[in-house]
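Weekly puzzle thread! Below is a chain. First person to post its structure in token form gets bragging rights.
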Amino acid sequence: MIEVLPANPEKLAERLGEPGWLKEARKGAAAVFKAVPWPDRKTEPWRYAAGRLKNVPFDLPLALPKERSLSRDALPAVVRKRLADADLAGFLVFLGPDLVYAELAPELEEKGVVLTSLHQALRSHPELVEANLYKAIPARQKGNAEDKIPALAAALWTYGAFVYVPAGVEVEKPLAAFFVSEAEELEVSRTLILLDDHARLAYAEEHLSESEGEAVHVGMTELILRPGARLVHANVQTKNRASHHLYRQRALLEKDAALKDLAVNLGARFALSEVGSELLGPGADSEMLGVYFAAGDQHHDHYTLQHHVAPHARSDVYYKGVAKDEGTIVYQGLIKLEPGAQKTDAYQTNRNLLLSRKARVESVPQLEIAANDVRCSHGSSIAPIDEEQLFYLETRGIPRPSAENLLVAAFLEDVLGRVPLENLAHHVARVIEEKVRV
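Winning reply:
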């Protein structure tokens, strides 16, 4: 594993034309990266994934923007296929680190909605970016091994999306961003989504591959929800089997803000997804859903955090996954309540299905409660596919692969059924069906 960053963050800031405050933030993150060790098995949430880091080629060339643009008809086929099924008010397409296409409904632009690249937002909305970037995932971390990857990301990100919805504005149709890997590079992205008071938005980002080459993606997403804001958010990963995908997401929810989040991991050889909500104001509500499927030798690792700071807030985690062949899936989740988080309602559920004897699952739900007037619960289960149900379907003339697909679809339906983005839920279901049949 690398001990020095693959690029100089200060020179990178100069090359990208960034302001002085961001250059200093990158410099601080680089110092954290240098000071802290790589995660090991004693590091949460890396208990089961630390060994995989040795196989991640962080020394690949850093992906740098080439200032390209494409017409809609010339977009990668994987994106055009997705657009054919989607009904969007606007979307971004990144090819590697380049924003090659952007589209937003004119009526939303007139209302002040912003959908662009983070670097463009540094020029067009500098005050919004400076006030909120690194707010949910700081550039200068606490200084332990858990912060090694976020420090790398804060120091070296070269692209990402920026979304802003002004106070009181409701975006009726979803917005989306497609991130397409095209080369064997180290891709480092950062996305910032900001919803002002009582704004409403549905937003989905999908990470895909155009080639079969080995690429590394390190991505950070920050969600800032002002009082009364409502956000439906989805992060979908369907990259090729040679890829490595390391992702962290943190949401800050102020008074009466509500988040419904969906995390989907279906691709990549190794994928680590950390999703957390910080409930900072009374009435905040966070629902985090997860769907994942590991086949072949894939390793999918998930960590969720429900951090309750304020009283009278609610959070719910519901993650379901399937392992096939020699696939490995891991779920670790923490409900953490501060002393002032009285009258909290918090739930955490993880369910896993095994389709082979060689597949492996680890499920570790956790509670850390410092308040005494709360309602918290957690539970997990791991079970093989029901052979009697398979036999019943086969006796009705349904081939075993189709029978397995029916049972997997039924197993995951109560998660996907809670996703209000119907087209996205259908897309995820189709990808899962393909994985079952292979």
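Puzzle host: Confirmed. Bonus trivia for everyone else. Residues 9-385 form one domain.
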